[in-house]
């Protein structure tokens, strides 16, 4: 019975639908607007002339048919992954080191934190040269991103240049500074060197082996294999154990940073894909402590970006590295600064004068005077020796620090000191972290033009700087630097 009674209702509903459709041709469109016709209730069927209630349909947003893969993301690791271009190395040593790193996520996190100020600049320079971005991970193998790393073979800096190779690629190493520790200069030199040895061998694994062992040694190893009819690829060469393990360490790091899921499981942090620092050319001499104050940042952080300075003073026209978000502060404070930029002067010692007498004359503790001049142990002054001393205390035989100031080999010391360290030591396989020391700075007044690293339209200009830091002491690492064996 229920089904019989429902049949008339269904018939009536169908009739209403047909009636509605019968009037839609005249009311379905109005210009460019699209309408949908609503059904009339069963009790009110309107004539076609009265029209039907209509509702405008809003068009859905257009769906993009393509994705711009060139648009830069916020995560620098993604950018680095996209630039990987070296052939993969798959061997037991790679597996060993990958497990070593994965079992020490804290060490990896420390390396990443230390890399933050430098990594974006390095990637920018690598991409500008069309080189594989695996190279951006090389300072992890070389120095664990410690700019003060120092090896038993006297290799120094992020890229671990030995003195001879540093001079070959125009890195200044003098009383004032050691550009092997300079972030900008050493990165440019390292990439120049790597490109040179890649052009020599035509193979990135051999180029990396040359960076560690020396291009001459690798060339001789290749020639020996050629003479014996053997393969000349990296895995086939007879090489020292350190070089044998060198490329697998880089490959292990590449494997980890290639895998976002693995990075997340290890708790490895992101690094932002944006410039961290800008460069300013100092208009005049400036103390390191003063420069740090002008930028509104701790001295140790300033020194971590400017680790090349051996003295507490930076000469005029020195390139100063400032965090990009503190650049405006630095420039504003510099423009309002009327006081001297440095507290130090150059003093020429008298004949027979002892360094203890110089310290007493200028009212400075002997250890502080030695540290400012990069000296330690028993020091004997020779006639005409020049020293940095506190300024404004005894004008006799002193002169201002100038852009062309040259401190000759002024003293004879039983134990000449190396610069004082500024960053944390490397987390290398088998090595623990060590601590680091800091330097000084004091700013100047002139406004400076700057270059923000990675910014498209930035230009490098000038700003003067005067400083007063003690020389940074490198942190020793187990391995020696590039090309140390020849």
Largest sheet: 3 strands, antiparallel
Shape: globular
State the distance separating the first and last CA atoms: 104 Å
Rg? 34 Å
- What is the spatial order of strands in the main beta sheet? 1-2-3
The CATH class of the domain at 76-266 is identified as Mainly Alpha
Q: Examine the secondary-structure arrangement and name the CATH architecture of the domain at 76-266.
A: Orthogonal Bundle
The whole-number mean of residue pLDDT values reads 79
What's the gist of this structure?
By secondary structure, the protein is α+β, with helices and mostly antiparallel strands. Helix content is 38%, strand content 12%. It is globular, with a radius of gyration of 34 Å.
Topology:
Layout: H1 2-27, E1 29-30, E2 33-37, E3 54-56, H2 76-82, H3 92-102, H4 105-128, H5 138-142, E4 149-151, H6 163-168, H7 183-201, H8 204-213, H9 215-227, H10 241-257, H11 260-266, E5 277-281, E6 285-287, H12 288-295, H13 299-305, E7 313-314, E8 319-323, H14 327-336, E9 344-348, H15 355-361, H16 366-372, E10 379-381, E11 386-390, E12 398-400, E13 411-413, E14 441-442, E15 450-452, E16 465-466, E17 475-477
Parallel strand pairs: 4-17, 6-16
Antiparallel strand pairs: 1-2, 2-3, 5-8, 5-15, 6-7, 9-11, 9-12, 10-13
């Amino acid at each position: 019975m229920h089904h019989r009674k429902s049949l008339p209702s269904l018939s009536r509903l169908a009739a209403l639908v047909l009636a509605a459709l019968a009037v839609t041709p005249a009311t379905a469109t109005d210009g460019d607007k699209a309408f949908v016709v609503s059904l009339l209730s069963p009790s009110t069927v309107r004539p076609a002339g009265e029209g039907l209630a209509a509702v405008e349909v809003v068009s859905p947003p257009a769906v993009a048919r393509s994705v711009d893969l060139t648009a830069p993301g916020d995560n620098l690791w993604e950018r680095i992954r996209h630039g990987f271009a070296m052939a993969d190395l798959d061997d037991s040593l790679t597996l060993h080191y990958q497990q070593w790193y994965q079992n020490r996520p804290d060490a990896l996190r420390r390396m990443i934190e230390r890399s933050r100020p430098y990594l974006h600049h390095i990637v920018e320079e690598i991409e500008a040269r069309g080189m594989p971005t695996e190279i951006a991970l090389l300072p992890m193998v070389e120095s664990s991103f410690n700019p003060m790393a120092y090896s038993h073979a006297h290799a120094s800096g992020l890229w671990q240049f030995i003195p001879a190779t540093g001079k070959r690629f125009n890195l200044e190493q003098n009383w004032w500074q050691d550009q092997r520790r300079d972030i900008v200069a050493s990165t440019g030199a390292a990439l120049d060197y790597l490109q040179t040895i890649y052009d020599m061998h035509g193979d990135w694994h051999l180029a990396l082996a040359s960076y560690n062992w020396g291009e001459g040694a690798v060339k001789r190893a290749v020639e020996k294999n050629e003479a014996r009819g053997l393969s000349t690829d990296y895995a086939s060469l007879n090489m020292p154990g350190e070089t044998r393990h060198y490329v697998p360490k880089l490959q292990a790091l590449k494997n980890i940073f290639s895998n976002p899921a693995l990075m997340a499981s290890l708790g490895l942090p992101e690094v932002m894909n944006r410039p961290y620092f800008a460069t300013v050319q100092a208009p005049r001499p400036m103390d390191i402590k003063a420069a740090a104050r002008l930028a509104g940042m701790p001295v140790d952080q300033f020194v971590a970006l400017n680790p090349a300075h051996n003295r507490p003073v930076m000469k005029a026209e020195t390139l100063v590295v400032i965090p990009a978000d503190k650049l405006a502060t630095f420039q504003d404070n510099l423009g309002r600064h009327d006081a001297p930029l440095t507290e130090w002067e150059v003093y020429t010692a008298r004949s027979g004068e002892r360094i203890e007498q110089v310290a007493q004359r200028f009212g400075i503790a002997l250890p502080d005077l030695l540290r400012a001049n990069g000296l330690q142990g028993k020091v004997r002054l020779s006639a005409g020796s020049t020293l940095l001393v506190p300024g404004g205390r005894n004008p006799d035989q002193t002169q201002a620090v100038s852009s062309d100031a040259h401190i000759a080999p002024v003293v004879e010391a039983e134990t000449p000191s190396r610069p004082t360290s500024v960053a944390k030591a490397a987390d290398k396989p088998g090595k623990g972290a060590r601590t680091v020391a800091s330097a000084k700075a004091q700013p100047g007044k002139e406004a400076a033009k700057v270059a923000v690293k990675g910014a498209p339209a930035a230009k490098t200009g000038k700003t003067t700087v005067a400083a007063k830091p003690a020389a940074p002491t490198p942190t020793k690492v187990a391995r020696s630097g590039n090309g140390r064996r020849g």
